TrEMBL record:
The lineage of its organism: Bacteria, Bacillati, Chloroflexota, Ktedonobacteria, Ktedonobacterales. This is threonine ammonia-lyase. Keywords: Lyase, Pyridoxal phosphate. Catalyzes the anaerobic formation of alpha-ketobutyrate and ammonia from threonine in a two-step reaction. The first step involved a dehydration of threonine and a production of enamine intermediates (aminocrotonate), which tautomerizes to its imine form (iminobutyrate). Both intermediates are unstable and short-lived. The second step is the nonenzymatic hydrolysis of the enamine/imine intermediates to form 2-ketobutyrate and free ammonia. In the low water environment of the cell, the second step is accelerated by RidA. Its EC number is 4.3.1.19. Its cofactor is pyridoxal 5'-phosphate. It comes from Reticulibacter mediterranei. It catalyses: L-threonine = 2-oxobutanoate + NH4(+). CDD domains: Thr-dehyd (cd01562). Signal peptide: none annotated. Residues 17-304 form the Tryptophan synthase beta chain-like PALP domain. InterPro entries: Ser/Thr_Dehydratase, TrpB-like_PALP, TrpB-like_PALP_sf. SUPFAM superfamilies: Tryptophan synthase beta subunit-like PLP-dependent enzymes.
Amino acid sequence: MHLPDFQDVLQARRRIRPYLAKTPLHSYPALNTLIGTEIYVKHENYQPVGAFKVRGGINLISQLSAEERERGVIAASTGNHGQSVAYAARQFGVKAIIVVPEKANPGKVAAMRGMEAEVIFYGATFDEARLHCEELAREHGYRYIHSGDEPLLIAGVATATLELLEDEPGIEVIIVPIGGGSGAAGACIAANTLNPAIRVIGVQSEASPAAYESWRQQRLETASNRTIAEGLATGTAFELPQKIMWGRLKEFVLVSDEEILQAMVHMIERAHTLAEAAGASTLAAAYRMRDELAGKKVAIICSGGNTSLEHLKRALSL
């Protein structure tokens, strides 16, 4: 697989600009007080599908060949990758099939169907859904869009970090959530090119640490996958994002699901922002690391806002 570079990110920005508006970067005094430093939120929850992955979807599907468009595309997802593929496929008139776990977030499923994608339920976990998706792709000849091992996806999502650093060039630390790792890999490419001194820090739930263990040991690992955060819920590491992160990700932290739920509440109370669990995980990491971050200018990626009512009720009951 081609390892995407900064030129790929610049090309991705040109491709997605006609379809996606730049998302805001805001600092909130109440969050600054909570963390004890200057902190900025990159609002990818403001994307038309409520999550950052749509950047990669537009970049990839815009580059499909005529033959691939005719065959149609298929993807496995816990929600946001599927919404990204569905949104981009509709923009370019391509048939999309999304395979989701049986207990996938109902709101995300409804959104995918609303964007004219066919949704297939299979398995209890993302990894079971992914294996079935790959089988369907082989059987029917669909263009399979992996949620991490796609250079065009990574280059596309990297444009969020490019925007962030154009708005605030003095950012010293960027914290990004990691499920499969496409967002973190993209952040590393953009940040390390523009300013190699920036610390890119990944965060994952300790209940689903496959990406963390793979990064730590620098080999692909599997691990238990029990987190409530759909965007962090991968039990198997992805090769391409890991190859990028092994050389460029400065630090990787694990937080508990309880810390993530509390961070969802902090985002509502202090930033007037609805963040899904994965989107709030970066604030959870910043709060845990607040002593270490004191005096730094920090950006956190709010990767999405597609929380379920079940998760929101659970967070508010803490």
